[in-house]
What does this fold into?
Amino acid sequence: GENVEQHPSTLSVQEGDSAVIKCTYSDSASNYFPWYKQELGKRPQLIIDIRSNVGEKKDQRIAVTLNKTAKHFSLHITETQPEDSAVYFCAASDDYKLSFGAGTTVTVRA
Amino acid sequence: DSGVTQTPKHLITATGQRVTLRCSPRSGDLSVYWYQQSLDQGLQFLIQYYNGEERAKGNILERFSAQQFPDLHSELNLSSLELGDSALYFCASSGRTGLNTEAFFGQGTRLTVV
It folds into this structure.
């Protein structure tokens, strides 16, 4: 089955700096890669996603890159703000199952 | 509001007991996923149903079972409960326009086994 590894497990950044989270996946059949943000005590919510036919996607301060050959994808958050503090999960889907990474706890220091 | 409804929100029960968690997916979504999130842990995939049929299975214990009914709501049954089963159980749904689309999460059911 699919195995998604996510690094780092915790990330502390100064407000205004960038944050990068990296994920690798094992199943070459995976073709959909969403990123979810989970604030304390709340449900995970989609923040951005990318499909296998696209190498990069950007939405304001958030961008995701995908390298299918290397089987890795990354989330980039620029100009971080206090409200970016949360747990971020990457995921990979092969049309049947959505498998999540272990999560990255991001803390933005004021 | 994601459109996914989970009941109950909180559940406290004793070891050895059996509970049923319920999930109503977004209108039109055919896929339902169940995840377990223990304290300070990630989202562990349990099982997925698509239009009433089991589609994928994760590390779901034999004491746990699930089903999706004709009206597409789903239930997760947990039996012979142990202290370690205490966790937040999320249901997610997707598939309104295709199989591989955004999954929307319910607010979760917090299960406490005492």
About this structure: The two ends of chain A are 41 Å apart (CA to CA). The CA atoms of residues 14 and 65 of chain A lie 23 Å apart.
